[in-house]
């Protein structure tokens, strides 16, 4: 166009380069979705660590059972839910579609399925608490079924959004791959 201090090329004001400065939308989307998924994974890790702490305290009897109840059955398979999150994180550096697909499938198996089972397992106890006001298990003075239903609701939302954003990220990566094949 022009040298630093010299004259500009005829017919230009120097701003005609801006169309070349834009990043393709699927790349922008990929970066944004990766960021959102990472936030959800970190939230999942916090939930996972809290459940792990409850299980360790319950089994090792570090606190009395009226302080921290023994874990419900659904919590054991839910511990495997850390694996899909790790696969998701491993898929990000090189946009590895295979790892992301495995992460999505295993999220359904190791995260969502135990949460559904947990909601069904705790339902009779929640019903008893609602109808009769009786709770037999407690976590720091709160009924264990109420606390764990809160955990199930939050975890279901985290995993639901994680699957949604992962699907959109997968679509973004396929768009990028298809455009590369056209060239």
From TrEMBL:
The chain crosses the membrane at residues 40-62, 99-118, 138-158. The keyword Membrane applies. Coiled coil: none annotated. One of its GO terms (cellular component) is endoplasmic reticulum membrane. It is found in: Endoplasmic reticulum membrane. Its main location: endoplasmic reticulum. It comes from the Eukaryota. This is Protein jagunal homolog 1. It comes from Cnemophilus loriae.
């Amino acid at each position: 166009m022009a040298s630093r201090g010299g004259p500009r090329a005829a017919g230009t004001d120097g701003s005609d380069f801006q169309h070349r400065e834009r990043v393709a939308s699927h790349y922008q989307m990929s970066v944004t979705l990766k960021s959102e998924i990472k936030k959800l994974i970190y939230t999942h890790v916090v939930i996972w660590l809290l459940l792990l702490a409850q299980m360790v305290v319950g089994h090792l009897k570090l606190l009395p059972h009226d302080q921290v109840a023994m874990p419900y059955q659904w919590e054991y398979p839910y511990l495997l839910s850390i694996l899909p999150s790790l696969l998701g994180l491993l898929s990000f550096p090189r946009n590895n579609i295979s790892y992301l697909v495995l992460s999505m499938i295993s999220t359904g198996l190791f995260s969502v399925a135990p949460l559904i089972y947990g909601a069904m397992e705790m339902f009779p106890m929640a019903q008893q608490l609602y109808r009769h006001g009786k709770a037999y298990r407690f976590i720091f003075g709160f009924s264990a079924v109420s606390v764990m239903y809160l955990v199930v609701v939050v975890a279901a939302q985290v995993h639901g959004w994680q699957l949604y954003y992962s699907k959109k990220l997968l679509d973004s990566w396929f768009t990028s791959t298809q455009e590369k094949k056209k060239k």
